[in-house]
Design goal:
It is a single chain. This protein is mostly helical. It folds into two domains: 62 residues, no CATH class; 110 residues, no CATH class. The protein is built from seven helices and two strands. The chain has a two-stranded antiparallel ribbon. This is DUF308 domain-containing protein. InterPro entries: DUF308_memb (IPR005325). Keywords: Membrane, Transmembrane, Transmembrane helix.
């Protein structure tokens, strides 16, 4: 919804916020490094039993923290250069999501036939995502609104597909259970040996009873 209402402004501020997080984490690690180094320098030296000074291990220089600060500064002060990358990432999410929906529908064909309309929805999402990947340099505001609509459309289609596949699977399982029960009933009707044996036993018992009388 934010992409639809504010477009590129949302991406710009999102980039700045991400840059601020990177810069803050890098700054914290650098401050911890300086504090640890200062505390070790101010502490008294430790000697062993022979009087030799024991060298304390110096803290490792926070290379990752400095790199995080540099990256955060770039994202904060140059957010526009990062927007195109975010556009590409969002377009990739749309393309991969559409492929996932197509795969789910293909698996659902094992249970029942899938209506054509359910195949069209992910194809539309795939086409829009592919268009954005091919031409990411279009107007950022237009692209962001397009991605926003596609995200909403993708979420709705995902829920609809999940409901449809669930109902088809339940119907398939119910039909399979009914077919199995009918097959077992037919098998019992075609093999009446148990019933015949039971009648023979009853007749023999009745004859024995008559003889005793």
């Amino acid at each position: 919804m934010l992409l639809l209402q504010y477009g590129s402004l949302t991406i710009q501020w999102l980039t700045i916020v991400i840059g601020g997080i990177f810069f803050a984490t890098g700054l914290i690690s650098f401050i911890i490094y300086l504090s640890t180094k200062k505390r070790l320098s101010a502490s008294e030296s430790i000697t062993d039993s022979d009087g030799y000074r024991i060298q304390r291990p110096a803290p490792a220089f926070p290379i990752v923290g400095v790199g995080s600060m540099i990256l955060g500064g770039i994202l904060i002060f140059l957010p526009g250069s990062f927007v195109k990358g975010i556009v590409v990432v969002l377009a990739l999410i749309l393309v991969l999501g559409a492929i996932n929906q197509l795969v789910s529908l293909a698996r659902a064909t094992k249970f029942a036939s899938v209506p054509v309309l359910f195949w069209i929805f992910p194809l539309v999402t795939f086409g829009i995502g592919g268009f954005i990947l091919v031409r990411p340099g279009e107007t950022i505001d237009l692209v962001m609104k397009l991605i926003g609509w596609c995200m909403i459309f993708y979420g709705a289609v995902e829920g609809l597909d999940a409901w449809k596949i669930y109902s088809m699977r339940k119907a398939f399982e119910k039909n399979s259970a009914n077919a199995q029960a009918a097959a077992e009933a037919r098998a019992r009707m075609q093999n009446p040996e148990d019933i015949t044996d039971a009648e023979v036993v009853d007749d023999s018992n009745s004859h024995q009873t008559g003889e005793k009388i």
